[in-house]
Amino acid sequence: MISVIIPTYNEENYIGTLLECLKNQTWKDFEIIVADANSKDKTNEIVKKYSSRIVKGGHQAFGRNNGARYAKGEILVFMDADLRFNNTFLDDCCQSFESQKLDIACCYFDTSQMSLKMKLVYKLWNNGKYLKRKSRTPVGEGQCLWIKKSVFKSAGGFNETMNMSEDVDLIHRVVNKKYSFGMLDYRFIPSTRRYEQVGVIRVMLGSFMSGVLQLAGVIRKNKLSEYIYGGWGKYEKKK
Q: Where is the Glycosyltransferase 2-like domain (predicted)?
């Protein structure tokens, strides 16, 4: 069984599309857990229409970890709320994950429907993923992250003291524990809204800076993500 875990905050314009994609999957042995960070819009209302479980969310690391606490599946799939993919995506990825005997994996981006500028950006990411897929510091992200639940628990889950790059941190910790990382050659369509709203240069520079600052331990001490990413992903805590 697969547990799909989706952290949300004010995702009414996107979550319905993702849940519809999941509803139409040929692979049926999965559950959906939405970790919502006190959304102020109709996110929860939309989620309930699809009979998905809603649990307490917060920042990305906390939301993903809390969703995993309720997961019944042997494989956890962490997804962002604004993804799209074809109807065989889960089936194809699950078979590839098992046939490669992987413990943790990421997918490539589908750039076919993007503008030329965005194609260049995401092809850079795809190339980085491919070139570093067998290294000790592979390129990956939490937008569509596959991991065995036993491995996730062994690694201690996402580091909740980190305000960004918690997904890369988890991947590297898992790889350093000698677990098997790989790429699933099936693609999903990501949202380009962060690049469009914050700016390509700022996001790309922010991604580079986050890696450097993560190594220096600065990210754990300061909420630099609000500046680097223009406040992207900021949520309100429940009072």
A: 3-153
CA distance 231 to 224: 9
Q: What's the whole-model pTM score?
A: 0.85
**The dihedral formed by the CA atoms of 137, 115, 92 and 66, expressed in degrees to the nearest 10:** 60
CATH number at residue 22: 3.90.550.10
Residue-wise pLDDT tens digits, 80-117: 999 999 999 999 999 999 999 999 999 999 999 888 88
Has residue 22 been placed in a domain? Answer: yes
pLDDT in tens, 183-225: 999 999 987 676 666 666 666 666 666 666 655 655 554 455 5
Domain limits for position 112: 2-196
What is the DSSP track for 44-99? HHHHHHTT-EEEE--SHHHHHHHHHHT--SSEEEEE-TT-B--TTHHHHHHHHHHH
